[in-house]
Amino acid sequence: MIGAVWNLLLGLAWVVLSGDFSGFNLLTGLVFGYLVLALIEPQVAPLSGYSVRLPRMLKFVAFFLKELIHANWRVAFDIMTPPWHMRPGVIAMPLSAYTDLEITFVANLISLTPGTLSLDLSDDRRVLYIHAMFLDDEEALRSSLKEMEHRALELFR
Amino acid sequence: MIDLLKAILLLGGALLMLLAAVGIVRLPDLLTRMHATTKAASLGVNLTMLAVALHFSDVGVVARALAIILFVLTTAPIAAHVMGRAGYFVGTRLWSGTVKDELRPNYDPLTHELKSGQEPRQNVERPGRDEAPE
């Protein structure tokens, strides 16, 4: 978190010093800021892990977009064609996230992917109940949800 | 080139929103309808906003477009979750083609307690097992 703030500050400093207030120049500044932070990271304790976390975050965004488009296509196909291919149902997914922030993040990600909607969390916060539209292959669905959770939690830990 | 990209984004966004509307009409029950509206519609809004940002390519407009995308992405799933949850617990009937419901046996409508069912796998095999005492 501190790393991100410093990166933004360095990027802004680059923009101010070079006097070119365009989005592209800000991007350049951010890239240089990132490189500088990656260089000094071993010597500054609060920054540790930042240079690894940022690419991981970008990779996660790419992964999520891919899932989003794929799943959207599936739901779209089912809506547009007359017979129902869907087999909806409510499944319980054991969570490995345990803080409020992590659970919220994971539940929101699941809700955002088409075909899955998080319904409720059990009272002991161990299980998330999910309404899924395509339960043809439950194991595959469970493992893909688990993979998404695992990747999301890597961003926090 | 940019014009083509903008056209694709706008048309894609509009198509997705049309799809969401068709989904509301066609889909059989509340929860499946929530699927269609939140995801397709929010993705549609995002694509439209991207096209807007590309078209104006002005710092103020781009910043606002990105802010709109961010806010839609954070609020849409929460709204879907709250509506779906409320609808489910009020007792909306699920579609007849629903294959399984692992929540119902763990929920106590009197105390509003929701158990986790320590071994969820057991429920997978026999979903109707806990319904007998009711």
Throw out a few tags for this protein.
heterodimer, A: 157 residues, mainly alpha, three-stranded antiparallel β-sheet, B: 134 residues, 4 helices
Question: How would you describe the overall organization of this protein?
Answer:
The complex is a heterodimer of chains A (157) and B (134). Helix content of chain A is 61%, strand content 11%. Chain A is built from 5 helices and 3 strands, in the order H-H-H-E-H-E-E-H. Chain A has helices at 2-18, 23-40, 50-80, 100-112, 138-154, and strands at 89-94, 116-121, 127-132. A 3-stranded antiparallel β-sheet of chain A has the order 1-3-2. Chain A starts with a helix and ends with a helix. Chain B has one domain (2-92, 101-114). The radius of gyration of chain B is 20 Å and the shape is elongated. In chain B, helix 1 (2-26) runs antiparallel to helix 2. Mean pLDDT of chain B is 78; it is low at 122-126. Chain B has 4 helices and 3 strands, in the order αααβββα. The chains are: A mainly alpha (157), B mainly alpha (134). At the A-B interface, helix 3, strand 1, helix 4, strand 2 and strand 3 of A face helix 1, helix 2, helix 3, strand 1 and strand 3 of B. Strand 1 (89-94) of chain A pairs parallel with strand 1 (100-101) of chain B, so a sheet runs across the interface.
List SSEs of chain A in N-to-C order.
HHHEHEEH
What is the CA-based Rg of chain B, rounded? 20 Å
Q: Average the pLDDT over all residues of chain A and give the rounded result.
A: 82
N- to C-terminal distance of chain B? 64 Å
Total count of domains of chain B: 1
Shape of chain A: elongated
Structural class of chain A: mainly alpha
User: Cα-atom Rg of chain A, whole angstroms?
Assistant: 20 Å
- Helical amount among residues of chain B, as a percent range? 55-70%
- Which percent range describes the beta-strand content of chain B? under 5%
Biggest interface, chains and residues, is: A-B, 43 and 51 residues
Strand order of the largest sheet of chain A: 1-3-2
Specify the overall morphology of chain B. elongated
**pLDDT < 50 stretches of chain B:** 122-126
Uncertain parts of chain A: none
Largest sheet of chain B: 2 strands, antiparallel
Strand content of chain A: 5-15%
Taken in chain order, the helices and strands of chain B follow as: HHHEEEH
Q: Care to count the β-strands of chain B?
A: 3
